[in-house]
Specification:
- The complex is a heterodimer of chains A (631) and B (319).
- In chain A, 26% of the residues lie in helices and 19% in strands.
- Chain A is of the alpha+beta class and 631 residues long.
- A 10-stranded mixed β-sheet of chain A has the order 10-11-12-1-13-23-14-22-18-20, sandwiched between helices.
- The two termini of chain A are 53 Å apart.
- With 319 residues, chain B is mainly alpha-helical.
- Chain B is flat and about 80 Å long.
- Chain B starts with a helix and ends in a 7-residue tail after the last helix.
- The chains are: A alpha+beta (631), B mainly alpha (319).
Chain lengths: 631, 319
């Protein structure tokens, strides 16, 4: 009798739960039912993508097909400590991803990892002066407006420069002394390149000229955000006080991007609303030329990846973006209600070789390693099933230019495919012979055993290591996996004090035996000049021990070449030092594997148009927020 | 009783000092705020100087601790560098309230359900009801918190909506827009917290009640013809309460100091997640404020339990 009462109680509780669920209000629904303006036509490929999805579950918000409105909900694991991108306490990508919807710069970065004029009407014109200085003339787009109705003018560019360089010690010509290390008030001052600016001359509301002491190849990156002179603060201290909360004494800071910051419920969510004064996106990837379709964006801070996926599957979120872990792909890519979108971002994985290692110091062995790695099998086995054809099937063959950039050349074409015979031939030429179990050994250097290490805990990386381990076993290499969990790997292995000292001194100091092969990701971008230090003798970004005087000289020249094509060739030349033995036998200290794909899951049963960007690693899901549209 | 309480509070001060010093030393030794600048290739010397100044990093840890204590007792809880340099005092109360909004219903539910199932199980010893409660208890003991939380999400947010065509009864994060939204966001984390702790509670209360159940005075009461309900409520449960009160005080301390796993899984912005984030990022001021709050909570709960003993058992004197 008592048991039956208990069962009845449980049944009542369950029924109550169902009733409560069924009677729920629509307060939290994503897509609202406000205005219903006409939608812009979606491109053909997006329409096709829609047809592949179904809308059985979960329940969709009540929005007319193709209409504007609704709130896009993005569930993301990280919450920024504040909204000040240049605050040293704030090194999280999420901050720049959020700000990408709020504020624009002179140039943006497209899905092809190339610059496009964002606030500019056209490309800037570089003029070389006789004294070696350069002047870059620029013209802003007509009708640019801040969200509060104030025109966005060339004075805002000049103001931005004044703020970020306030207090810095200057040379006589106006450029900044010693990389901005002295006197600057603005926190970090990303002064690379900015230090060369001597002045900004404003000719009119839209025309201005940036004068630089000498040419800087990354000049398009200099004003990736332009601040509002009338609202962001009278001086650097005020700006530093206003940016963290994205507000000043009068309220939220005005936007030049498609969204306006609205509120931030810390630990829970951030809200943005549409900027109806938005001048339209210039991005070649954006489909919608006008203001955003959605009324706003709600960013839910969901720390757990499984919870993110559950949020997506329950319709509580429309898009998530996370590390390309296997579980994520398996749980979503098999569900027809969701689309998993990925793209080749500017971050790339590589195997870095310690050229001070007793085996790897021989270029023939390094080349044997390159022959032994079959990147096509790695791509076909691990990446293509998860990320589709967004990555090149033959893997990456360049460490300066990414596969989706126009200057990209695959310099490792000759190592493509399974070439264990070539690998063994190289080893034999280097004096190695089969020890009897398929692994080669050298009469003096011993058995060909090499350790490969990375940040442990990433399933995709570890599987990749195991796959290559098996490939290299067929080529006579014994690869031992030697990972260290998390970020501690870097400090304990390739970037340890002992290892760096060895790399810088050619093995005379420190300990060159700390590591043999490393696997991690470097960040590339539209300006590859930042990639050059990894091969410069003694540089802190060069743990490989590579040393070549010609490379060092050439690396210093590339960024000074004004002509775009010639400069691109120069970077490609540096890459041939890096990934081949064509120029010098000190080369081939890096084997690029693949670009690290950005990875989105979105609720395709609810979203008609999704602005999921190429280049998300650099820009985040809000890069093309204008394109998101509910069904 | 008043003098006893005062004495207990005074004797708690060394406990607080030791606990806070250990936390301060561990946080300072393990995570250095300057590490945040390690990945910042363009950070100026001013950025370093600023952090050194903010945390007195140029001084030894004991000296820093004394400095922190000095600031704290004068009401300056410092700035939370892991939270955009907001005042710690502001975040402390904000997140404290959030924790209460999760912990209070969990504690109330746990107390009621734990007592009911524990007593029921004891009274139905070795019968179906006892076995059912015992089985569920062991399930709760065996199931990791994160797994149970995720299971609840899948069942309530995905499966039930799919099977019955209803809206998911779950919303990640904490939502206070309306009572309904609060219920939607708090129900699953509360169930998770309750279920995980319920197992131990239920077994503990069962054992306590069983212990009393066979006592002479219970048999005497029954022999005198006292009703079953009166025997249970007046004699049995009340006498079993002393160990149970201890359990409740521990539960309260555990729940109100924040649950890292449950808060992470359900994105609840309470002390648990905040403490973890702050500690990992070397945010000493915030870590210390939460650690101190947790220590005070534990001390207070123990004091409360001690005071309750006297109420429940008049033989106990506070000399």
């Amino acid at each position: 009798m008592r048991e039956s009462k208990l069962l009845k109680l449980l049944a009542m509780l369950f029924a109550f739960t169902l009733v409560a669920a069924a009677c729920g209000s629509d307060d939290g629904d994503a897509a609202g039912d406000e205005d219903t303006t006409e939608a812009t036509d979606a491109p053909a490929e997006e329409e096709e993508a829609m047809e592949e999805t179904t809308t059985t579950a979960p329940p969709a918000p009540d929005v007319e097909e193709g209409s504007s409105g609704g709130t896009l909900i993005w569930a993301h694991e990280q919450e920024p400590p504040d909204m000040h991108l240049d605050d040293p306490n704030n090194g999280l990508s999420i901050t720049s991803w959020l700000r990408s919807a709020l504020i624009e710069g002179l140039y943006g970065i497209s899905g092809a990892t190339e610059y496009y004029p964002e606030l500019l009407a056209e490309e800037g014109v570089v003029t070389e002066n006789e004294d070696g200085s350069v002047s870059i003339s620029m013209v802003l787009r007509d009708g640019l407006m801040w969200s509060d109705g104030t025109p966005l003018t060339a004075n805002d560019v000049s103001y931005t420069y004044d703020i970020i360089t306030e207090g810095c010690d200057r040379e006589d010509d106006g450029s900044i002394v010693d990389g901005g290390s002295e006197g600057c008030v603005y926190f970090t001052g990303g002064y690379t390149g900015t230090e060369l600016i001597t002045s900004i001359e404003v000719a009119s509301d839209t025309e201005f000229t940036i004068n630089m002491a000498s040419f800087f190849a990354g000049w398009k990156a200099l004003f990736s955000e332009v601040y509002a002179a009338h609202a962001y603060g009278a001086n650097a201290d005020e700006v530093n006080a206003n940016l963290p909360e994205w507000s000043n004494a009068d309220g939220v800071l005005p936007s030049s991007g498609p969204m306006i910051f609205e509120s931030w419920d810390r630990g829970v969510q951030m809200n943005m609303v549409r900027n109806d004064a938005y001048h339209g996106s210039n991005s070649p990837d954006a489909v919608n030329p006008g203001v955003a379709f959605v009324d706003g964006v709600q960013v839910n801070f969901v720390a757990d990846t499984d919870t993110q996926i559950n949020s997506l599957k329950s319709g509580e979120a429309h898009i998530i973006m996370t590390q390309p872990q296997l579980a994520f792909g398996e749980r979503l890519s098999t569900d027809e209600n969701f689309t998993v979108a990925s793209s080749a971002g500017p971050v790339y994985e590589h195997w870095g070789l310690n050229v001070l290692n007793v085996h790897l110091s021989d270029p023939l062995v390094r080349e044997a390693l390159a022959y032994g790695i079959d990147k096509t099998e790695v791509m076909a086995g691990l990446y293509t099933p998860l990320f589709g054809d967004s990555l090149p099937a033959e893997g990456l063959g360049n460490t300066f230019w990414m596969s989706n950039q126009s200057a990209y050349v695959d310099h490792q074409k000759m190592y493509e495919g399974p070439q264990s015979d070539a690998a063994k031939a190289n080893l034999e030429a280097a004096g190695y012979a089969d020890s009897g179990d398929g692994i080669y050994e050298h009469p003096e250097k011993g058995r060909l055993t090499l350790r490969v290490g990375t940040t442990g805990g990433n399933a995709l990386r570890e599987l990749q290591q195991q796959l290559i381990q098996a490939q290299l076993a067929a080529s006579g290499f014994e690869i031992v996996i030697d990972n260290v969990d998390g970020g501690a790997y870097f400090g304990e292995r390739p970037f340890s004090e002992e290892a760096l000292a060895a790399a810088a001194s050619g093995g005379a100091e420190g300990d060159p035996t700390v590591w043999d092969i490393t696997q991690f990701a470097w960040v590339g971008g539209p300006w590859p000049g930042g990639s050059a230090p990894k091969g410069i003798t003694g540089n802190g970004n060069n743990p490989y021990g590579h040393s070549n005087a010609d490379y060092d000289v050439r690396a210093g020249e590339c960024d000074g070449i004004v002509d775009d094509a010639a400069r691109a060739d120069c970077y490609n030349e540096l890459d041939r030092y890096t990934t081949t033995l064509e120029i010098a036998d000190t080369g081939l200290f890096m084997i690029p594997l693949t670009q690290k794909p950005s990875y989105y899951g979105y609720l395709s049963s609810v979203l008609q148009g999704a602005g999921v960007a190429p280049d998300a690693q650099g820009a985040g899901p809000l890069a093309n927020v204008v394109d998101f549209q509910f069904s | 009783m008043f003098i006893f309480a005062v004495r207990r509070i005074v004797t708690a001060i060394p406990v607080l000092l030791v606990a806070t010093f250990i936390t301060f030393w561990a946080t300072s030794a393990v995570s250095n705020p300057l590490d945040r600048l390690a990945t910042c290739q363009t950070c100026s010397q001013q950025a370093y100087d600023r952090l050194i100044d903010l945390y007195d990093l140029d001084q030894p840890i004991p000296q820093r601790y004394v400095s922190w204590i000095g600031d704290f007792v004068t009401g300056d809880m410092g700035q939370a560098t892991s939270q955009g340099e907001r005042p710690v005092s502001e975040i402390f109360w904000e997140r404290g309230l959030n924790t209460i909004l999760l912990a209070a219903p969990a504690f109330v539910l746990l107390t009621i359900v734990g007592a009911v199932t524990g007593v029921y199980s004891a009274l139905r010893q070795y019968k179906f009801g006892d076995y059912a409660v015992t089985s569920v208890s062991y399930l709760g003991l065996a199931m990791p918190t994160f797994f149970f939380g995720l299971l609840l999400q899948v069942v309530f947010a995905i499966w039930i909506p799919q099977w019955f065509g209803v809206k998911p009864f779950w919303s990640s994060g904490m939502h206070l827009e309306s009572p309904y939204q609060y219920l939607r966001s708090v129900t699953l984390p509360v169930l998770t917290l309750m279920f995980v702790l319920l197992a131990g509670d239920s077994r503990f209360i069962r054992a306590a009640v069983l212990d009393i159940k066979s006592a002479d005075y219970i048999r005497t009461a029954r022999a005198k013809g006292v009703s079953n309900r009166k025997v249970i409520t007046k004699h049995l449960f009340r006498n079993a309460m002393i160990p149970i009160v201890t359990l409740w005080s521990l539960n309260a301390a555990a729940l109100f100091s924040g649950s890292i796993i449950t808060e992470t899984i359900f994105s609840w912005p309470g002390y648990g997640r905040l403490f973890l984030d702050a500690a990992f990022q070397g945010d000493v001021d915030l870590t210390m404020a939460i650690a101190l709050a947790i220590t005070v909570l534990v001390v207070l709960m123990n004091l409360l339990a001690d005071l309750m003993y006297g109420v429940l058992d008049p033989r106990i004197r506070y000399d």
